[in-house]
Amino acid sequence: MPKTILIKNIKTLAGIDEENLLLKKGKQMSEFKSIDDACVLIEDGIIKEFGHHSTFNIQLSTIETIDAKGGFVLPSFVDSHTHLVFAKTREEEFVMRINGKSYEEIADAGGGILNSAKKLQSMSENELFDSTLIRLHEVIKFGTGAIEIKSGYGLTVKDELKMLRVIARLKEASPIVIKATFLGAHAFPTEFKNNHEGYIKLILNEMLPNIAAEKLADYCDVFCDKGFFNPTETDVILNAAAKFGLKAKIHANELGYTGGVQVGVKNRALSVDHLEYIGDEEINCLKNSNTMPVALPNCSFFLGIPYAPVRKMIDAGLPVCLASDYNPGSSPNGRMSFIISLACTQMKLRPEEALNASTINGAYALELSKSHGSITIGKQANFFITKPISSLALIPYSFGVDFVDRVFINGNEI
Ligand code: NIG
Ligand code: FE
Predict the structure, then answer these.
(1) CB of 223 closer than 6 A to ligand 1?
(2) Is residue 59 pLDDT above 90, yes or no?
């Protein structure tokens, strides 16, 4: 007997897509289709049917029903960019920035990513797993229904593998889908400060082959930016990763117009992420590509750097995705509803655009559009029920407020 569940008494079922779009771009991003007074039927964890309650002719006594109590139902967020595995928080650097130091100055002095790496190197795999699992469950409660997690705080062969093994164990333990990204090229370790070639050789000859042998990564990332990896170095690493079957998802243009977008598109990156510095050249380059531009507004908010010009990008016809960048340095928070608020207040996205950016476009950036990111028949029943709210716009409007009431992953309540 299939397990059937009916969600009833839904004030508004939102984020419906009957066309099975893989992503939304330009004007499409303003459409977040909804039905009022709706029901959803789930069979074996998959969305079977939905519609106005009057169209449902089901013997309610025979199946399990869940009363949404007049809340909205939305597809779960897909958070396509996080650094969820880390050892310790970095509030001391937060205070240094308040006192006038920049993110780059702190990194140059051995803080930042190298600081996180030092702390992670002395932590055991089990400790890392336990602390990350807590954060994973926190973000699931905030409405995230699929997530990407990067390595990049190991920076030695042993510790990058340790991080990726933690992610592999999280995949097993997690109710939500996790994609793993290898980010050995996150920063040059101190001993390679004047020997970039040496570290890149380590990535190419030791890290990538071991990761591929253990099948520990889905994607490869490089922090292509001022003071980190330049476009030529990035190109070499992405090329090598492609030979091991790892598609690119890179950090680009956070600290300047560095050519990161161009090298990402050249390597057919699934996404280029950050994008605080984007001009017409980068927009035109993205227009002729299948690469998803991903903005990380938490990072701009927390570091006080410019916001990615996503209004301009959508108006130019591009798709845009929003993700949390949850990490201890630039975004110590993974609550997607706050990211949507920032996108609306600071980047002038409409609520519908911000919701598409954090659901279906997030799914695209993780190659999950066929199963995640919208309320569509045949997709996984990943959604949340909100507390009673007056409209969709209330979600970004009520910044910092938790409106997620009940979370369902594959039809199971979490
Ligand atoms: O996406 N910019 C590069 N990496 C992370 C931050 C890493 C850190 O500061 O620990 C980011 O912002
Ligand atoms: Fe990041």
Answers:
(1) yes
(2) no
